[in-house]
Write the structure tokens for this entry.
Amino acid sequence: MTERLQEQTGELVAANAQIDSRRALIEAVMSGVSAGVMSVGSDRVIRLANSSATALLRTGSTSLVGRPLAEVAPELDALIGGETQDAIIQLAAGGEAKTLAVRITRDDGQHILTFDDITQQLLDQRRAAWSDVARRIAHEIKNPLTPIQLAAERLQRRYGSKLTEDDGTFGRLTETIVRQVGDLRRMVDEFSSFARMPKPVFRHESLAELARQSLFLHEVAHPEIDFVLETAGPAPLVCDRRQLGQALTNIVKNATEAVAARPEGAERGRIEIDVRYDAQGRMHIDTSDNGIGLPVERDRIAEPYMTTRKGGTGLGLAIVRKIVEEHFGTISFADRPGGGTIVSILFDPSILAALAGSGTSDDDALQEVTTRHPMLTRTGTPA
């Protein structure tokens, strides 16, 4: 009997050790995957959750274990009651809208939920579709523009001098044609820029000088607005000078339009660019204005063809975001205290330094960036 008890005790110890080993293996696997994984009991209380689930649901340091799923993510809780195995849902995590691809496995009242963030993937797909649309529009519109402009200019030269000076209708009409063709050509150029953005060439540049030039271009045309640059020095940054200059110019252009759209009697317009470093060495470029502020559709203002201005193409901020993402940065929009808008761009100079003297097609440079920062995506945010 003693020997049997010893054998049974040994078997129990070995079984417990095996269970502990399996538990450790499962926890190691779950902590190493990027997808969120949760085990939910029949009472819909979370029994187990990995760190990715906590990060995706933006619960901070608060543990998910022991909390009702309906309290953490009502959208996920609603899926458990049905028979759906795969679903795509939208939820607000930490004040940010996210799109999750969810898969549910059911077993005797227990539920295993695996989910991944596909927000950026869907955004990339939409941008690719919009790029194709822009390419087609540019091709279809650009071909007839040149003969229209040439025909109008020829009419001006041939018949303009033969008409009486009192009759200015002909001149005004032909000038309107030429001017409108020029506007269409500029619009087509924006379509082309968005559809075929050239690869950036990274060089050491002074961001303060780029910001100063962007302000100067509008300062001459808008003397009624105060343009201010705040910077502690040249603010060196590895970047594509032409593209980043275009991004800053587009932002300042939007700011001047927002200031001009204010009602009569408003305070003097002011547009300010603040270039600074934070404690982590990251570079911030904040452009603020006292204009009419952000539109209601503020979450979509950087999407292609999203515009609130008459005659706008909706590509200006889409191009800006594309340029910022090509520089592994992020862009955000916020309300300015007292009225107006703040556009904030964030870069990490240490990441861009590895790309000095290269284009994004340089595989060695990109490999160095991804090796040094393996969790970094093209958008400059952790994967």
